[in-house]
Amino acid sequence: MPSLSESPVAQIATRQIGDALEVSLGGVWSIRAERPQWAPLVQGVAPRRLRFLLQDGTDWDSSLLLFLGSAQAWAREQGAACELDRLPDKLRELLGKLDSAQAAAAPADRSVNFFTAVGAAAQHAWRQAGEIAAFVGECTLSAMAMARQPWRFRWRDCLSEMQQCGAMALPIVSLISFLVGVTLAYTGAIILRQFGGDIWVADLIGLSMTREMGAMMTAIVLAGRTGAAFAAEIGNMKANEEIDALTTLGVSPVDFLVLPRMVALALMMPLLALYSNCLGILGGMLIASSLLSIPPTAYFVEMQTIVDLSDINTGLLKAATFGLIVGMSGCLRGMQADRSAAGVGQAATSAVVTGILLIILADSFYAVLFNALGW
After folding, report:
1. What's the pLDDT tens digit per position in 228-286?
2. Can you list the pairs that 349-352 forms with residues at least 24 positions away whose Cβ atoms lie under 8 Å?
3. Least C-beta-crowded within 10 Å: which of 53, 61, 199, 347?
4. Which residues are bridge partners to 21 per DSSP?
């Protein structure tokens, strides 16, 4: 027997035919009125098929779409077939769009197995390592070509980048290096004063700045300042299809964009490291003079007894390597950036993280190497 549920605006009649439930829809369906619910219609009923019919003269809007969408969702959960072929074409088209929109908005399943996550992370790291190795190879080939034909190198662009990453970085490098020297001197004074070795603070500051902190702090500052700028600039060029235009014209983006920036950083980083050493030593001298009452002359004399040219050369070698790393990280992430504003921002962030990570790894490698060589 058919059951009829009537409301002032919508009519629903259901009839069981074998394993199928036939649902007849009629009346006036309005989103502003109370919408009939699907769940009460199938309470205590388990049909294997649903068949929908729309009566002639039915007036409907999105409320009917929502009702049919609930029916389709119930059919998917129960494994029942849903027959919509007797509905108007326009209604079926809108139902398809609603189903696609709901499927796209459904939250993704994030319950990933631990081993799956580790494997995916390992594959991502392997791909990243391969991309870095390929980029380093392209830069090496470009540098070899520049050495054979130096007149083809874009020296004007290189000089412009040297100004941006060298002279324009002096204020922030000065502040950071001076404060690092002050901090090291304060920390060393706390320990050395207990043993009556106040004068040794000059040895501590001299060795720390020339061998480690001068090159390290300068590289980290430039990784956040210049490396991010390189990534943002090249990423913006990629988004505007300027790099594609260079490739179409037969110009290598590595020769045109990457190599001048890497050479500029490799040349300016040792000079900035020397400048950083001087500022850090001056900061330590200020604390030694004011806190430990050590005259500046005694401070410099004591520092010269422990710091020699090999220590300075060690810092300069690290600084040149760090400069290449910062330039490579910024240009690599810029070349990998997505063609959107969000992609440019992500490239700048990734350039800073990659640069600092590789700087720490390179510094650790040099520490082991210099210890093995006795430097």
Report:
1. 999 999 999 888 888 888 888 888 888 888 899 999 999 999 999 999 999 999 999 99
2. 349/228, 350/231, 351/223, 351/227, 351/228, 351/230, 351/231, 352/223, 352/224, 352/227, 352/228
3. 61
4. 16, 50
**How many C-beta atoms surround the C-beta of residue 47 within 10 A?**
20
The pLDDT tens digits for 108-131 are 556 667 888 888 889 988 998 888
Residue ranges of the chain that CATH labels 3.30.750 = 3-105
- 21: three-class secondary structure by DSSP: strand
Q: What single-letter amino acid sits at 193?
A: R
Looking at the DSSP bridge assignments, the partners of residue 27 are: 10
C-alpha 56, offset from chain centre: 58
Residue at 306: amino acid letter: I
Q: Of how many residues is the chain composed? A: 375
CATH class of 3-105: alpha beta
